[in-house]
Amino acid sequence: MNWISNWKKIGIKVKQILKKQPVGQQETDWKNCPQCKKISYLPDLIANSYICECSFHFDLPPKLRLDSLFDSSYEIIEAPENINPDPLNFEVKERYKKAAELGFKFVELQNPYGIDVNELQALLDGLGLEQILINIDVSDKELGSMNLALNPLKRDKFKERVEKSVQYAETLSVRVVNCTPGPALNDFEYTEQYETLVENLRYASPLFEASNTKLLMEPINTFDQPGFFINKSKEGAKLVEDVGHNNMGLQYDIYHMQLMEGNLINNIKQYIDIIGHFQI
Question: Could you give the CA distance from residue 107 to residue 252 in angstroms, rounded to a whole number?
Fold first, then answer.
């Protein structure tokens, strides 16, 4: 046995030849486990389904997550722009009646603003339902998009929408209100959009707190909604931290987060203190 093969047998520990890798995401061939602090070679980690020897589950890239869920013949398709969000053409009243018939006690409605708030309250009372959640109307009719909260030029319009939403939240005794950031705008830098979103949520948080309504933000997957501005739980948690108001939290949708990152149980445990509402 020559000295070269002997050297290969002995091996060199990774920690002796590499600087410690940062915890979190990094573009290298090595991953540092935030639980046991061991450094793993990325190809070995991939072969082990992104699971460390200590059983910590790293976030799977979205494409690998889909590969693990479906057979090899699946294809990712973009939803048509004119897709009908209500294919059964149920009016709100009919939806609520059907929910009550099926034994549900709580209902959600993203955009209730086309119905008079007192009429909606009477409908809920008559059916014994509670309006658990509504969304702030973030539609931008000029751009044809749902990202008003990101637009630095439309802060005043966003404030008007917040005031309308507060009115509905108070009258209907809504527990949580969701503000979705929507897709990123092409005409503004990321930083400017992010700072606008933070500023808007700081404005809205105490207003909803006064009506005993929790303000939330929901990360959404980029397969169904390409370019969605906040699309992972870590990004949502950072936003909540940057807003810095105790009435600001995270809406955690199991479907969206399973597609984007997986590792649901560990992520829910990590962010449970700021999660104000779950959707499945």
Answer: 17
Residue with tokens 């708030």: 117
**Digitized pLDDT (tens) for each residue of the chain, 280 residues in all:** 454 444 444 444 444 444 444 444 445 688 888 888 888 888 888 888 788 888 787 777 776 776 666 665 656 555 555 555 555 456 888 999 999 999 999 999 999 999 999 999 999 999 999 999 999 999 999 999 999 999 999 999 999 999 999 999 999 999 999 999 999 999 999 999 999 999 999 999 999 999 999 999 999 999 999 999 999 999 999 999 999 999 999 999 999 999 999 999 999 999 999 999 999 8
Q: Can you give the pTM of this predicted structure?
A: 0.71
Facing residues of 178 across strands? Answer: 135, 216
Please tell me the distance from the alpha carbon of residue 92 to that of residue 112, in angstroms, as a whole number: 9
C-alpha distance from residue 209 to each of 108, 219, 223 (Å): 19, 21, 33
Burial class for 156, CB neighbours closer than 10 Å (0-12, 13-18, 19+)? exposed
Count of helix runs (H) and strand runs (E) in the chain: 11, 8
What is the total residue count of the chain?
280
d(CA 91, CA 122): 16
> Rounded distance, CA 237 to CA 242, Å?
9
